[in-house]
Amino acid sequence: MKRQEFPTPAEQGHPSADCLRFTGIHKRFGSFKALDGIDLSIRKGEFLCLLGPSGCGKTTLLRILAGLETQDAGSLHMAGRDISRLPPAARDYGIVFQSYALFPNLTVAGNIAYGLRTSRQAQSRRVAELLDLVGLPGSESRFPSQLSGGQQQRVALARALATSPSLLLLDEPLSALDAQVREHLRAELRLLQQKLGVTTIMVTHDQEEALALADTIAVMRHGRIEQVGSPEQIYRQPANRFVAEFVGHANWLPVHCDDMGTLRLAGVPLASSLALPTGMAPAEATLFCRPEDVRVEPHWQPATNTLMAVVERVDFLGGLRRASLSLCAAREIVLVADVSPNDAGFSALVPGQRVPVTLPADRLRLFQGPVL
Ligand SMILES: Nc1ncnc2c1ncn2[C@@H]1O[C@H](COP(=O)(O)OP(=O)(O)OP(=O)(O)O)[C@@H](O)[C@H]1O
C-alpha cells in the first residue's frame, strides 16, 4: 500500500460539505426513552462534541452511529449514503473508548495494525508513521501494561486512525486520565485532528473539555438536543437555563419587569436596551451574567447598570480573585465577580468595603420566571 501521507482537509473535500446527518433518531430501552428525536448535521472536517450530564444519551447516540446499537426510528447518512442499517465494519470510522480497550496480549504494533489488511511491510511502515503522529515513536514492541494511561490512549488513538477512516469517534477518551495528562493530551488531540482534517465526534460530560476542543458543541439533556452552536455561542448566548447552567459559572439575579418593560434589580432600573425574549410576560424574570463580566469599579460614577455592593468575601483563584458581593439595596442578593489584578477595581476588593459594580448590558441575558 502506498499510503505514506495522511489526506489533508482539502484532499478530503470541501470543509463545509455535510459529512454526517442524523434525522429523527429515537431509541428506547424498555419503557425508558434514551433518545427522543435527534436531528444533527456535521460538516466534513468538523470537531463536534456531544456534551451533557450523565444519562442524557450521548453514548447511545455515538453507539448508534457506530452501529453498536440500533435506533428504533430515524436515519443516518454519511457523505450522502444511508448507513442506518449497515453493520459496524461497513461504516468507515475509528473509535476510541474511555477505557483504553487495547488487547493486553498484543504489542503496541500488534494493537495498531489489528485492523490493517495490508502486507507486513506496509503495516510496519503505517505503525511507525502513526506512532510518530501520536508522539510515541519506537514503541512498537512494548505491551499495553508497560505504558501509562496517557500512552495507552495515544496507542488507542493510533489504532483508531490506522485505516484513515472518514470519521473519528471518541467516547470520553480523556476522562480516565489525571488532570495534567488530560490537558496535555487534549491540546495534542486538537492539533492532530486539525492536521488530519478528520471529522470527529467526541462524547464528554466535561464542559471545559468541550469548550476547548470543539468547533461545534451539541448540548444534550434527557435524550434531546438543547442547543447546537460554537463554543462561543454556547457560552455567550445559551438558548435556555439548562445550557447556561451546565456550561460555565453564572450569576442568576431576580429582576422584575414592569408594564412599561422596565427591568429592575433590587429596585434599580436596568438598561432598557436589554432584549426581552419574545413572548415574555411582564413579571418576574431572571437575569444571567457571567462572573467575569461583572465589572468592579474603582470609583462611583452614576452610569447605566451600575449599583452599589458590599464585598462579602474574596477567594484567591490563582490569576483571578473571585469576589462575592451583596447589593446594598437588597443585601440578600449576592453576585459573584471574577476580577483580575489588571482590572481597575481590583484594589477595592476588601471584605466589608462598598464598591460600585456594573453589569454590562451587552453581557446580560434574561430568562422567564423567578430564580430557581
Ligand atoms: N443497554 C441498555 N439497557 C438499558 N438502558 C440503557 C442501556 N444503555 C443505556 N441505557 C440508559 O440510557 C440512558 C442514556 O445512556 P447513555 O450511556 O447514552 O448516557 P450518557 O449521556 O452517555 O451518560 P454517561 O456520561 O453516564 O455515559 C441512561 O439512563 C442509561 O442507563
Topology:
Layout: H1 9-12, E1 18-29, E2 32-43, E3 47-51, H2 58-66, E4 73-78, E5 81-82, E6 93-96, H3 108-112, H4 120-133, H5 149-161, E7 167-171, H6 179-196, E8 199-204, H7 207-213, E9 216-221, E10 224-229, H8 231-236, H9 241-246, E11 251-257, E12 263-265, E13 268-269, E14 284-289, E15 295-296, E16 306-317, E17 320-327, E18 330-339, E19 354-358, E20 365-368
Parallel strand pairs: 3-8, 3-9, 6-7, 7-8
Antiparallel strand pairs: 1-2, 1-4, 4-5, 9-10, 11-12, 11-14, 12-13, 14-20, 15-19, 16-17, 16-19, 17-18
Helix pairs in contact: 4-5
The protein binds adenosine-5'-triphosphate.
Quick recap of the structure?
This protein is α+β, with helices and mostly antiparallel strands and 372 residues long. The chain has helices spanning 9-12, 58-66, 108-112, 120-133, 149-161, 179-196, 207-213, 231-236, 241-246, and strands at 18-29, 32-43, 47-51, 73-78, 81-82, 93-96, 167-171, 199-204, 216-221, 224-229, 251-257, 263-265, 268-269, 284-289, 295-296, 306-317, 320-327, 330-339, 354-358, 365-368. Strands 6-7-8-3-9-10 form a six-stranded mixed β-sheet, sandwiched between helices.
Mean pLDDT: 88
Query: At CATH's second level, what is the architecture of the largest domain?
Result: 3-Layer(aba) Sandwich
Q: Give the biggest beta sheet.
A: 6 strands, mixed
Number of strands: 20
Please state how the strands of the largest beta sheet are arranged side by side.
6-7-8-3-9-10
Query: What Rg do the Cα atoms give?
Result: 25 Å
**Number of discrete helical segments:** 9
GO molecular function, one term: ATP binding
Protein name: 2-aminoethylphosphonate ABC transporter ATP-binding protein
Keywords: ATP-binding, Cell inner membrane, Cell membrane, Membrane, Nucleotide-binding, Translocase, Transport
